[in-house]
């Protein structure tokens, strides 16, 4: 039976190992939510980069520059980290260079995986159905906050585990913990998360609408997948 | 207001910092449960050491040698890691040299703290009352399993957080997550933990009695505290 495991922060990734596994990157507030919306709204590809300088350099070569540090957009970029900015095909056909505090680091640490896909509540069922359909073990990698565990990514990991539990064997206690937390919180995730540190941080930045949007389930039937250092629409990849 | 934080594995301890904090070391199955029972049953002191060789060397100098690796006692020691062995004052007045897979590492990584104390379900309320009575911030350090997060230590962290929440400010999401998990599981922790990896591991070693014992709350009104590289009874320390 295939196995599913959960790594609660990239800081623990060296204890797992990504080889021969499909890795699901999770950064609910807000990197992987942004990526989901962007790809669903026709963005051609997203190049995740670790540093602001790389992002600026790609921007000067013609990419749209999306950057976030500590929840805010640094000066000199086109976009911050709001998923709402990509709605209505606002950036359809464009290539986005994106750097965020946690999410892009989780991607770069997972590059040796069999496949790297992007998960968020917005494409939850698409992700679950894809994972069930493919043959490999699964590792869900939560981006966390500066190395520490966060609640919103853990809840999403639990949501995926719930979807996979009849098809996959559970590997570690973090899998059980995340599923318990999701089942506890799912009736009103916004209420449960209102006490959590990153939601407090974002509320201070007046982006309550982003938070509410990122917690909606199954808005898009799309899976961003990493292909040669850029995220693209899995469906388009299959067709080409 | 004083703060309470939870570090879910020693592998993340570098992100926290122990200075000026009281650190509570948690290794429910079974190191800190053993330490609680031992001190409550008159053991003079416990010297936690990282390596089997150090433990053996102290044993040859007259200590009782307690050693555990992967749940089992290696050859050539006096005791394994069963808390039941210390009952009925079996080792009263003795000095124990102790090495375990996870717990003793968590202690050695926390040595720069203001104070290091030992927590387990067996002395839960004694630990909570002491933490409320003293002036410092608190960091609960779960020993985990070989660097990964485990359920039983997380549940105990949540139990302590529940006891402290009216007196301490919550610092991070791991604090909220652990309290939610404890409140969910507390009615029947043995049942909840029956799916968890370490309980499965220990069941295979036929030490079900140890597991049941380690989950009993408030059996002993005692706090082992680290004093010059050895754990001693806090009450005796105050008297001398």
TrEMBL record, chains A, B:
InterPro entries: ComB-like, ComB-like_sf. The keyword Magnesium applies. Pfam families: 2-ph_phosp. Its cofactor is Mg(2+). Its EC number is 3.1.3.71. It is an enzyme of class 3 (hydrolase). Signal peptide: none annotated. It comes from the Bacteria. GO terms for molecular function: 2-phosphosulfolactate phosphatase activity; magnesium ion binding; sulfopyruvate decarboxylase activity. Gene3D superfamilies: ComB-like. It catalyses: (2R)-O-phospho-3-sulfolactate + H2O = (2R)-3-sulfolactate + phosphate. Keywords: Hydrolase, Magnesium. Transmembrane segments: none annotated. SUPFAM superfamilies: ComB-like. Belongs to the ComB family. This is Probable 2-phosphosulfolactate phosphatase. The gene is comB.
């Amino acid at each position: 039976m295939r196995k599913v495991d959960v790594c609660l922060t990239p800081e623990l990734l060296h204890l797992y190992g990504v080889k021969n596994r499909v890795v699901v990157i999770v950064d609910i507030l807000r990197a992987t939510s942004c990526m989901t919306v962007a790809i669903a709204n026709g963005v051609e590809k997203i190049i995740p980069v670790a540093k602001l300088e790389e992002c600026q350099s790609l921007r000067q070569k013609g990419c749209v520059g999306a950057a976030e540090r500590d929840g805010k957009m640094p000066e000199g970029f086109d976009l911050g980290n709001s998923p709402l900015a990509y709605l209505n095909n606002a950036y359809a056909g464009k290539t986005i260079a994106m750097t965020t505090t946690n999410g892009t680091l989780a991607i770069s640490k997972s590059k040796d995986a069999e496949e790297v896909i992007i998960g968020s509540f917005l494409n939850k069922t698409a992700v679950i159905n894809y994972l069930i359909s493919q043959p490999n073990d699964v590792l869900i990698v939560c981006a966390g906050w500066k190395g520490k565990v966060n609640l919103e990514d853990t809840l999403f990991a639990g949501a995926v585990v719930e979807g996979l539990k009849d098809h996959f064997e559970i590997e570690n206690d973090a899998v059980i913990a995340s599923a318990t937390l999701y089942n506890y919180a799912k009736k009103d995730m916004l209420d449960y998360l209102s006490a959590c540190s990153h939601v407090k941080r974002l509320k201070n930045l007046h982006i309550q609408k982003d938070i509410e949007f990122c917690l909606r389930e199954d808005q898009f039937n799309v899976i961003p997948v990493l292909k040669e250092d850029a995220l693209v629409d899995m469906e388009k990849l299959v067709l080409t």
